[in-house]
């Protein structure tokens, strides 16, 4: 689960980084942990929720809800 405040901060970070362009939903736990995952929703989630790799992994689920 994500709080409304967390979702808002993620959306703001996404807009600042990508504006209206497309971005990846990638969120491989191993790659996020190593800091080598493709930039996108998963990486932004990890930036906004530092150290919470499990919730960053939920990027593909959150992305569907947000879409």
Task: Summarize the model shown.
The chain is an all-alpha fold and 67 residues long. The chain has one domain (4-66). Helix content is 63%, strand content 0%.
Structure description:
The protein has 67 residues and is mostly helical. It has one domain. Helix content is 63%, strand content 0%. The chain contains five helices and no strands. Helix 1 crosses helix 3. The longest helix has 15 residues. The chain is globular.
Largest sheet: none
What structural category do the secondary elements indicate? Answer: mainly alpha
Give the tally of β-strands: 0
Strand content: under 5%
| Bulk shape | globular
Q: Low-confidence stretches at least 5 residues in length (pLDDT < 50)?
A: none
Distance between the termini: 17 Å
The helix/strand series, from N terminus to C terminus, equals HHHHH
User: Number of domains in the coordinates?
Assistant: 1
Total of DSSP H or I helical runs spanning 4+ residues: 5
Level of helix content?
A: 55-70%
- The chain-level mean pLDDT equals 86
Overall radius of gyration: 11 Å
List keywords for this structure.
67 residues; mainly alpha; 5 helices
How are the SSEs ordered, and which strands pair?
Elements lengths: L3 H15 L10 H6 L6 H8 L4 H5 L1 H8 L1
């Amino acid at each position: 689960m994500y709080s409304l405040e967390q979702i808002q901060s993620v959306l703001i970070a996404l807009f600042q980084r990508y504006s209206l362009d497309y971005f990846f939903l990638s969120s491989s736990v191993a790659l996020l942990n190593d800091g080598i995952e493709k930039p996108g929703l998963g990486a932004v989630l990890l930036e906004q929720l530092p150290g919470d790799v499990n919730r960053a992994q939920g990027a593909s689920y959150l992305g569907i809800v947000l879409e």
